[in-house]
Design a protein that fits this description.
This protein has about 230 residues and is α+β, with helices and mostly antiparallel strands. Helix 2 packs parallel to helix 6 and helix 3 crosses helix 7.
Length: about 230
């Protein structure tokens, strides 16, 4: 990130894209981005409608959740975002939405199974779902505990290879090396959730995609010998 002003503008644009992509309604959801050098996070203010959102509304906090710049209260999910930035050292953006199909899987408390090559083009595994939070966690520092719950789900997984998660009973979070990439992953997650739900509605006994097809599609885009796209 070249400047705090640029960071705020990029985060503002990504937040404005959320309703355009059909990922949020009203004031639900948020995008953040981080300046790793300064340790500052730009994030959507709480409860502000997307039609009313301006660059100047974007709030900047540090990694201890203290407001650095902005007159409005930051997103109620800020502590989850900053927890992820502290835990996942190489991410540059985080997105949280309440998109319909991803939330449906989260409410069902089920991972999204890898059932086709569209999914395999992005991930070589299921989209994980966290455990349901305990009453003690819910009644404690809830948003921080949400971040902790996500990180716990990645003890045996790579946050780089799987840049998304479902928080059980709640909804999806995605991340990437920039706010724009995190937004892309959020859009793709919703499509994967929709495709899997429709597939199982058509045929509830549909098996997971076989490993040879998963490996072929994932590696041709992401492997050391990938050949998708241009140089």
């Amino acid at each position: 990130m070249s400047s705090l002003k640029e960071l705020k503008e990029r985060v503002w644009r990504c937040n404005k894209d959320l309703p355009q992509l059909g990922l949020v309604i009203r004031a639900f959801g948020n995008v953040s981005g981080i300046d790793r050098e300064k340790g500052f996070v730009a994030i959507k203010p709480s409860g502000v409608l997307y039609d009313d959102l301006t660059v100047d509304n974007i709030v900047v906090v540090d990694l201890e959740d203290r407001i650095v710049e902005g007159k409005l209260r930051p997103s109620s999910d800020t502590k989850t975002h900053t927890y992820l930035y502290r835990a996942f050292a190489e991410i540059g953006g985080v997105v949280h939405t309440h998109s319909t199909y991803a939330v449906a899987w989260a409410q069902a408390m089920k991972p999204i199974p890898i059932m086709g090559t569209t999914h395999a083009d992005l991930l070589a595994t299921d989209v994980p779902c966290t455990d349901l939070m305990s009453d003690e966690m819910i009644q404690g520092d809830y948003e921080k505990e949400t971040g902790k719950q996500i990180v716990n789900a990645f003890q045996a997984r790579s946050y780089k290879d799987i840049p998304m998660v479902l928080v059980a009973g709640h909804g999806p979070f995605t991340w990437g090396d920039s706010p724009e990439k995190a937004l892309y992953h959020s859009q793709m997650l919703e499509e994967l959730a929709k495709m899997a739900a429709l597939t199982l509605q058509i045929n509830p006994s549909t098996p997971r995609l076989k490993k040879t097809l998963v490996d072929k599609h994932f590696k041709r885009k992401h492997g050391p010998d990938s050949y998708y796209g241009q140089e």
